[in-house]
Specification:
The protein is of the alpha/beta class. It has a domain of 187 residues. It contains 30 helices and 20 strands. It has a 7-stranded mixed sheet. Helix 10 crosses helix 21. The longest helix is centred in the C-terminal third of the chain and has 29 residues.
Length: 740
């Protein structure tokens, strides 16, 4: 039976719910319409509401959202055979139905009783559906709510949050499991936090995995190169973004088995990865997202930096990969003093010198192992090398950044100096979105043999980095004073992802269990500043970043310590900076005049350990920030009002909570002097054990010296990484895997 409605009745209902809006124009448009199909009427009313969204009347987005909700309720009710306004009371039946259709995993019914599911059903808060903006609800409905294989909608927003909560808490002790499910649901449904995009999309479903990004380290052998490509393809198929370190691969012109000049360098292997990114897409939704990293001393650095450019030899181009450069302090010093830089072949260094240059970093500022080994390479007359002005490499970096937004910058010395787990590993590069920095090592084939007619390949697994992400919605969490309640449940949720996730690459599964690494992040920074009436370009904003992220760090470490007390610390805790106390000393926590009791926390960590080797990382989280109705990550807004353009729709959007008071604090990213953002981010980075997806926003007419100065300033302020160079003339594609 086709449902019909009267648009005037709907508008009268909206007038009551949104008294601040003027509905007279809409009433005049629709007063002559008779009853029509519900979906047609809702679509027309939604378009009308969207057309009125402006800086002066931003709340039209909530009117449009309310109408979209009505439409979703009707669609779900039709497919579930329940009244539209009563579907939330049929939660158990939803799980039964989607399990029978092969959409939900059987664990939901196997691990929770009917009585438990009914209790959780009563805890669902339908009223929290009203928190969504239209764009947020539209994205959630189109991309994440569970549908059958014919794309018919079944699941509603609050059910998605409850299902994820049940999945993440399913292995907790039964005595407290339901309370933990409710607490996780409270955190998500109140939009105080978001989970990673893969968790939001795949949680509870019969496919996919829950982690966002991965980092692979490729060895200098055909076995490693092709095995890595297979693993990368498998992860890309399952929706993961991948960072790949290529610095161990020999350069063009290097020898192979003693034959001089036989190697074609890293570019052909990049072409192979480029083909993988294009041909093995992410769940049919978008092509694979792969970044590749190379050391700035590698002989192939110039061809690597040109690989994404639009002109030149197409045989040397990899337009679908993202690039990143691994930069030691010494290189930046040479750029500053306009000195020379030497390029080496990593294979030749290993053969002649007996060590790998990439395995060293400067333990101190201005001194350390890397510059000593680098000088040994320069001084060895047998070793071939290239000699170029360091500034010429930097010019190539900046030329590519202005044209393509990349390469990303990875400051390897600072990263490794602050690595809490340097006792058992080295960090060579970062992930696709530059926020994850964890120990890496290559996976090697040990032996290949036949047995009982089967071919058996044995491998020694390396540290294959896995990123498990989640982010705090700063604007809501801080303003409502729930941070101390929120962080413990968030850390528990992230830790539980490790035990329930099914990563298709075995060494990733092993590494995940070994380090139990998580990435607690944030979004809504600009939104929060506007609500607090703090100007972006101010010392007040810098100081606020310092104190706020110190508090988040304290709560995250304390939460992980409490989990270690309950469940045990990660397997290689002994000897780490956490155990020795060096983590706290390196950041000056013990000598600070902070109100937080760092000394007591250090002693608790020493006694009980921490559950997670790595704890914090700030991802770009553009998509999930939009779902939560806030601003992405730690970025400033582009414009106060704009249109969000996705593959199949264009929606007007205003800065969140914009009004006569907050409007003055929403300055565009392209009008903010970037040195303010760098200093602000330096204060934030002090308290984050991993890294931050940090973008530069620049005009397209920027002078080379000004862009160079931004890079030098970022390095001197001890930023670990920088992400895109976003100029007013370039478009860059955000990675949605790391959205959280």
């Amino acid at each position: 039976m086709v449902q019909t409605i009267n648009p005037i009745e709907i508008l009268e209902e909206l007038k009551i719910k949104f008294p601040q809006l003027d509905f007279e124009q809409l009433l005049k448009r629709h007063e002559e319409l008779n009853q029509q199909r519900a979906d047609a009427i809702y679509d027309q009313l939604i378009l009308d509401c969207l057309s009125f969204i402006s800086i002066d009347e931003p709340d039209w987005t909530f009117a449009a959202s309310h109408l979209l909700l009505k439409k979703l309720y009707i669609e779900s009710g039709k497919n579930r055979a329940c009244e539209p306004d009563e579907c939330y009371t049929h939660f158990y039946e939803l799980i039964e139905r989607l399990t029978s259709l092969g959409i939900y995993d059987h664990d939901l019914l196997n691990m929770y009783s009917r009585n438990e599911i009914n209790e959780l059903s009563h805890y669902i808060k339908k009223e929290n559906d009203r928190l969504f903006t239209y764009l947020g609800l539209k994205m959630l409905a189109d991309r994440y709510l569970a549908r059958d294989k014919q794309k018919n909608l079944y699941e509603l927003p609050q059910e998605r949050f409850m299902i994820i909560s049940m999945v993440l808490m399913k292995k907790e002790p039964k005595s407290k499991r339901l309370e933990l499910v409710k607490e996780a649901y409270w955190a998500m449904s109140g939009l105080y936090m978001t989970v990673a995009t893969p968790t939001l999309a795949n949680g509870g479903k019969n496919w996919g995995q829950l982690s966002s990004c991965f980092i692979e380290t490729v060895d200098d052998s055909l076995d490693s190169i092709y095995d890595s490509n297979t693993d990368i393809a498998s992860l890309s198929k399952n929706g993961g973004g991948i960072g790949v370190y290529l610095g161990k691969i020999r350069s063009r012109g290097s020898d192979i088995k003693g034959f001089k000049g036989a190697s074609s360098g890293v570019i052909p292997w990049m072409k192979q990865l480029n083909n993988t990114a294009v041909s093995v897409d992410q769940l049919g939704q978008r092509q694979g997202a792969i970044s590749v990293y190379l050391d700035v001393w590698h002989k192939d650095i110039f061809s690597f930096l040109d690989a994404k450019l639009n002109n030149g030899d197409e045989r040397q181009r990899t337009h679908d990969l993202f690039t990143g450069v691994c930069i030691p302090d010494l290189f930046m010093e040479k750029v500053e003093c306009r000195g020379y830089w030497y390029l080496f072949d990593p294979h030749e260094v290993r053969t002649v010198m007996g060590f790998s240059l990439e395995d060293f970093y400067d333990e101190g500022e201005g001194n350390g192992s890397f510059r000593q080994k680098y000088k040994e390479c320069i001084d060895n007359p047998i070793l071939s090398r290239g000699k170029v002005p360091a500034i010429e490499i930097m010019k190539s970096i900046m030329r590519s950044q202005l044209e393509t937004g990349t390469p990303f910058m990875f400051y390897r010395d600072e990263v490794n100096r602050k690595n809490a787990n340097s006792h058992c590993g080295m960090i060579y590069c970062t992930n696709l979105c530059t926020e994850i920095v964890q120990n890496q090592s290559v996976t090697k084939r040990v032996e290949e043999y036949t047995r009982d007619g089967r071919i058996i390949i044995e491998k020694q697994p390396g540290d294959f980095v896995v990123c498990n992400l989640s982010s705090i919605n700063l604007a809501r969490a801080i303003n409502e004073g729930v941070l101390e309640r929120l962080v413990p449940i968030q850390v528990r949720m992230l830790d539980n992802v490790i035990d329930i996730n099914n990563i298709p690459v075995p060494q990733g599964q092993i590494t995940n269990q070994k380090y139990r690494a998580i990435g607690l992040g944030t979004f809504g920074w600009h939104h929060l500043l506007a609500l607090k009436k703090i100007t972006w370009e101010s010392e007040e904003a810098e100081a606020f970043a310092d104190t706020l992220y110190e508090q988040i760090a304290f709560l995250a470490i304390k939460s992980s310590m409490s989990l270690a007390k309950e469940k045990g610390s990660y397997s290689v805790f002994k000897g780490s900076d956490w155990e020795t106390g060096a983590y706290f000393e390196k950041r000056g926590y013990l000598e600070s005049d902070s109100a937080l009791d760092w000394a007591a926390l250090r002693e608790e960590v020493r006694k009980y350990g921490v559950r997670n080797a790595y704890l914090q990382a700030v991802a770009p989280n553009a998509s999930t920030a939009l779902i939560a109705g806030s601003t992405p990550s730690i970025d400033p807004i582009f414009k106060k009002q704009y249109s969000e353009e996705k593959k199949d729709y264009r929606i007007p959007v205003t800065a969140p909570d914009i009004n006569n008071e907050t409007i003055w604090y929403y300055k565009s990213a392209y009008h903010i002097h970037q040195e303010w953002s760098i200093r602000q981010n330096a204060n934030r980075q002090k308290h984050i054990d991993q890294a931050i997806s940090f973008n530069f926003y620049i005009p397209n007419h920027i002078k080379a010296i000004d862009l160079l100065n931004l890079h030098v300033t970022a390095w001197k302020n001890k930023l670990k990484t920088t992400y895109y160079i976003r100029s007013t003339s370039s478009e860059v594609e955000d990675c949605e895997s790391c959205s959280s």
